[in-house]
């Protein structure tokens, strides 16, 4: 292409478009003219280079490259870009890529491109790569900890595919339980490892766990064994899809099974399979034993996870609820339908109803029956009961009295009902009732006087205050 007729102004504009900085350098390597094509290059102080040697404007490691650029190349040789670093007045360095072209009078034209954007992209690429390597290393550590925990767990643990029910992984405890020394367990259908009479129940357990996402448990018998075990299953998801985490726990003998009479053995077996949760505690609240339904309510897979612990830990109101139960049971009074909430092993809150009795032989013990209120169906008779007064007469008061008075009386009635219920549950224990209602004792006494629910003990307390 012939650019002989190209005007100087046009060439100057073209040079400003294709380059970020342009330098005219004489035969002594001194910069005679500077032109910048970006506003960002002004921070570099390029115009202060006028009259300076090009070698003096770069860092030490770039001087050799400048010396090479100052040597004119033959016209037949291709131009080579060189990476040069310039120190900035404010500190730091700026990377610029140069080529030089020979001009008349032994002068050179140096055309430069700013590499700051490219350097920023490279820096981000390096940071991203380092972050990915850190994440990969963290995942490797997590997988290593999982493997150690999986293999060293004494409990038999299996990974089962949710679609084909094939065994994906089995730990050493499972290999020992199935007596599979050749490690041929992986790849088999999990249902084939169960006795035929228990396969339907296990398959139903897996389907329920997949549908609800909760921990589900049942009793089953392994193939070739006569000893029943507890099978628990939960669902987790990985990149390949959903999988079952199945744990097999050998049945632990309950505390009631130590009784020697035939009637006691029958009673122990009945309580073990009771449809409601059943717990046996001592007088201090330490759990001695519980049945399968009790373990299911608390989200447990083995009785050892709760035996020896205080019942207060699993009650939401802790010492308050235990105080109410303990006070009644110490006085040999049975507790019926005590409404409260328990905290499961996974941290969920579950509304329950507790009934309890006290046993004197062979040692003082408490027996508690725990019922899940979410599963309890409301009877039709309860739904058809009329509203208690004054709620039944609300419609008759509309239009006769202002709504402010109706609401005030209704609130007072509800408040009185709550206080009376708390006093009834705590057997007239003012301190426990105040704590259950979330009030101070003084506030409770004020409300008792307001509603006329006072006794001689309350009057004595007021007189002493």
CATH architecture of the largest domain: 2-Layer Sandwich
Estimated structural class: alpha+beta
| Euclidean distance between termini CA atoms | 109 Å
Total of helices: 14
Biggest β-sheet strands, sense, barrel: 5 strands, antiparallel
What is the gist of this entry?
The chain is α+β, with helices and mostly antiparallel strands and 465 residues long.
Structure, described:
- The chain is an alpha+beta fold and 465 residues long.
- It has four domains: 107 residues, Beta-Lactamase (2-Layer Sandwich); 98 residues, 2-Layer Sandwich (Beta-Lactamase), CATH 3.30.450.20; 123 residues, 2-Layer Sandwich (Beta-Lactamase), CATH 3.30.450; 77 residues, Arc Repressor Mutant, subunit A (Orthogonal Bundle).
- 36% of the residues lie in helices and 23% in strands.
- The protein is built from 14 helices and 15 strands.
- The strands form three sheets. Strands 2-1-5-4-3 form a five-stranded antiparallel β-sheet, with helices on both faces.
- Strand 9 and strand 10 form a beta hairpin.
- It is elongated and about 120 Å long.
- The N and C termini lie far apart (109 Å).
Q: Any key phrases for this structure?
A:
single chain, 465 residues, alpha+beta, Beta-Lactamase, 4 domains, 5-stranded antiparallel beta sheet, 14 helices, 36% helix, elongated
